[in-house]
Amino acid sequence: MALIVQKYGGTSVGDVDRITNVARRVTEARAAGHDVVVVVSAMAGETDRLISLAHKISEQPDERELDVILATGEQVSIGLLSMAIQALGFRARSFTGSQVRIQTDDAHTKARILSIDAERVRQALTDGEVAIVAGFQGVSAEEEITTLGRGGSDLTAVAMAAAVAADVCEIYTDVNGVYTTDPNIVPEARKLDRISYDEMLEMASLGAKVLQTRSVEYAKNYGVPVHVRSSFNYNPGTMVVKEDAAMEKVVVSGIAYNKQEAKITVTRVADRPGIAAALFGRVAEANIVVDMIVQNISQDGFTDISFTVPRADYAKTMEIVKAVAKEMGADKVIGDDKTAKVSIVGVGMRTHSGVAARMFEALGKEKINIMMISTSEIKVSCVIEAKYAELAVRVLHEAFGLGGQPVTEEAK
Ligand code: ADP
Ligand code: ASP
Ligand code: MG
Questions:
Q1: Nearest Cα to Cα of residue 84 among 72, 92, 75, 95
Q2: Statement to judge: residues 270 and 137 lie in one domain
Q3: From 154, 155, 182, 214, mutation site for ligand 1 pocket: most ligand atoms within 8 A of C-beta
């Protein structure tokens, strides 16, 4: 018999009927003889609702208090699910993040898990109970409630699976698995049977929210097998696993996009050592994460620097950069908060040439202008106008033959 961690996302526990459906699925696993730890998210829309409530009181809510508020969403779900499982005649017990000692640092709203003392969960399993753990939350050394960043219940589930050495971590969501691209944008998207940790990591960090980025990182580091599947049917989903030789044959496995980006350009900056450090140092001090950076070739001792930041940080970044640009004697600061990033991902890129060129050609044919490009071993990303994001995703999906059978070495 196996030890299974199951995680149910917001849509899967979106109302009372769906919670009952989850309870039924959990008890099926119990009836089959498995030990089950369940991690749940807040009911669909609840975290957004709590954030907007906080913003009605304060434009910049105190982050400690915000975490106190946000953690309630998951606390409601665990209590309801526990009752629903009990109503089906099975034993269950709910636990908050602090009760199961999901110990984190004190970075409110984006805390990192430091350790998990899963003793209470193990005891619950030994007692024949289903252990139901609140996702997305932990506790700091100072006993403060913390949250793990949006989508953080995935991380709770994976970390819990590592802590109890579960046989598998099942992520139940509202789609059948990980697709070649967001199936809600491209109906032709194909479900992948398997994807490597590294590809999934790129897909997640480039915008595919089906798994939270840090949860994939954690799964890779601890070798947790992750099965992404639907809570609404019994179809097999997608296994996130270690890379193997067969995976390199597929040139591009998926397309990701992120519409929440903004681009900032500083023109005619003096081209001398220390300038980039001064500029990006000030941005970093404000805890703003810079993504892509492009510096033009210097002309007569001056250069232009462009970079992207999350759109949510656009206004704050513009303010900082304008001040720094003035100090440096730069010419202008140009901002554009209507940009998007589209990316192709695949371990096959390591061994195939011409992949980036094919991407640029496909975008060019649709007259989609590329503003910035960045590459890594297994991805190519382009910054484009936000209004073309969906079109670009569809065009690239087609160009790399992702709708039908995957394009492999043999098929080329
Ligand atoms: P949950 O609430 O269960 O955590 P999320 O909304 O966080 O679910 O993630 C599931 C959503 O991720 C899907 O509804 C889908 O729109 C989106 N998504 C984006 N890219 C992909 C992809 N490549 N494969 C599957 N789903 C994707
Ligand atoms: N409820 C949190 C969120 O909406 C965490 C999660 O769902 O994973 O971000
Ligand atoms: Mg999610």
A1: 92
A2: no
A3: 182
Question: Which ligand neighbours the alpha carbon of 259 most closely?
Answer: 1
Predicted TM-score (pTM) of this structure: 0.93
Helix, strand, coil percentages (3-state) for the chain, rounded to 5, are 40, 25, 35
CATH assignment of the domain containing 336: 3.30.2130.10
Last residue of a domain, one of 174, 202, 224: 174
pLDDT average, residue stretch 34-38? 98
Task: Compute how many other C-beta atoms are within 10 angstroms of the C-beta atom of residue 390.
Answer: 16
**Whole-angstrom Cα distance, residue 75 to residue 137?**
9
Q: Which domain holds residue 53?
A: 3-174
Rounded (10°) angle between helices 213-222 and 197-205: 160
| Residues 214-250 pLDDT 10s | 999 999 999 999 999 999 999 999 999 999 988 888 8
The answer to whether the CB of 215 falls within 8 A of the CB of 200 is no
Of 174, 204, 234, the position where a domain reaches its end is: 174
pLDDT band at 404 (very low <50, low <70, confident <90, very high): low
Could you tell me if the CB of 146 is within 6 A of ligand 1? no
- What's the CA gap between 137 and 156, in Å, rounded? 8
Identify the H or E element spanning 18.
Answer: helix 16-31
Judge whether residue 406 has pLDDT over 70.
no
What is the average pLDDT score of the chain?
A: 95
Pocket test for ligand 2, best of 41, 50, 78 (most atoms within 8 A of CB): 41
What does 1-17 look like in DSSP terms, one character per residue? Answer: --EEEEEE-TGGGSSHH
Of the pLDDT bands very low, low, confident and very high (cuts 50, 70, 90), residue 410 is: very low
pLDDT in tens, 7-33: 999 999 999 999 999 999 999 999 999
Check which CATH number belongs to the domain holding 82 and give it. 3.40.1160.10
DSSP character for 405?
S
Closest-lying ligand 1 atom to the alpha carbon of residue 154: 4
Cα gap 34→5, rounded to integer Å: 10
User: What CA–CA distance (Å, rounded) separates 333 from 319?
Assistant: 10
Q: Is 12 in the pocket of ligand 2 (CB under 6 A)?
A: no
Answer whether residue 35 is part of any domain.
Answer: yes
